[in-house]
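Progress note, sequence design subtask.
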């Protein structure tokens, strides 16, 4: 059994969550190291642009990198584009357990941008189901579908949605996510999730919705949100964090927040998930595509032929001159 001073952050936004995350990857990873944390996730909004930088920074700091994304799930189909129905997709936290899961994350992120983009890069549940192998999912933050159903008082619909995710991902790969921020609705959702979580079917997971590294970063991050929304700092009716709790919390702070729930189940599960995730993104071997070449050539001789052909096209009869 791990000690009470262990925890892994699995819901973390970096600077690649543009105009929303302030966590510069080197500062983030170094602070996790200073806090004695042995693993750390990256879960940016709808994108994986920061994954390689994050992976290398973690490896350098001897921290286990966990690769994920906070995806957007369309309310209907990812191809639907109705300004009244499709502008607010649900959030969904996804983590890659293995290489298959990592490749599925890449497919999800790409399809969301190229096929599903409408205000946000979106997928739908059908696409998610087709690319669920090797992934771990959670019920997400308040902007996710299950918490939204709970806040609307649709308890049975929320239970049915939990059942769907358990069927798609498996009971060891889907978790009910608890967060601790100063939001009345979040406390209601947490209580509901704890009451409806059954260890033999669906388990709890504690996270902190990390958007910046240190508590002192709250005001600069608030300025970033103003830039995102075109608002002024002194305006009261604008997007802002509810309180200064969206930083990379220490293990002790997370245990203070969640240690009393089911004997720390939601915290121990962060360690369990971190142990499950094994991704290797080190550059080894040949990674360029294999190009077919005509008979009588290999890749080297055909490349030379194309280069000489290009020289003739550009320089005519001068192509063979030394100059």
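Output:
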């Amino acid at each position: 059994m791990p000690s009470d001073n262990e925890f892994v952050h699995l819901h973390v936004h970096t600077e690649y969550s543009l105009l929303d995350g302030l966590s510069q990857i080197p500062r983030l990873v170094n602070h996790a190291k200073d806090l004695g944390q042995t693993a750390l996730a990256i879960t940016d909004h709808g994108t994986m642009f920061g994954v390689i930088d994050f992976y290398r920074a973690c490896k350098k700091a001897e921290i286990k990198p966990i690769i994920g994304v906070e995806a957007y799930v369309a309310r209907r189909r990812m191809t639907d584009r109705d300004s009244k129905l499709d502008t607010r997709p649900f959030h969904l936290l996804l983590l890659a357990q293995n290489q298959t899961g990592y490749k599925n994350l890449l497919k999800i992120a790409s399809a969301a941008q190229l096929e599903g983009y409408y205000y946000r890069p979106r997928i739908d549940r059908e696409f998610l189901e087709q690319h669920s192998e090797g992934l771990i999912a959670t019920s997400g933050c308040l902007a996710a579908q299950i918490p939204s159903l709970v806040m609307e008082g649709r308890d049975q619909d929320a239970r049915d949605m939990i059942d769907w995710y358990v069927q798609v991902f498996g009971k060891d790969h889907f978790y009910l996510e608890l967060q601790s921020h100063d939001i009345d609705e979040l406390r209601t959702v947490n209580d509901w999730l704890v009451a409806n979580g059954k260890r033999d079917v669906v388990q709890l997971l504690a996270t902190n919705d990390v958007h910046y590294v240190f508590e002192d970063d709250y005001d600069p991050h608030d300025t970033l949100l103003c830039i995102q929304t075109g608002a002024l700092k002194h305006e009261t009716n604008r997007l802002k964090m509810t309180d200064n709790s969206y930083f990379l919390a220490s293990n002790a702070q997370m245990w203070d927040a969640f240690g009393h729930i089911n004997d720390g189940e939601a915290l121990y599960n962060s360690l369990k998930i971190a142990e499950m995730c094994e991704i290797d993104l080190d550059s080894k071997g040949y990674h360029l595509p294999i190009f077919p070449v005509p008979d009588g050539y290999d890749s080297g001789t055909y490349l030379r032929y194309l280069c000489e052909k290009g020289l003739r096209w550009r320089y005519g009869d001068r192509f063979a001159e030394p100059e």
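The longest strand covers residues 64-73. Work on this subtask will continue into the next period as scheduled.
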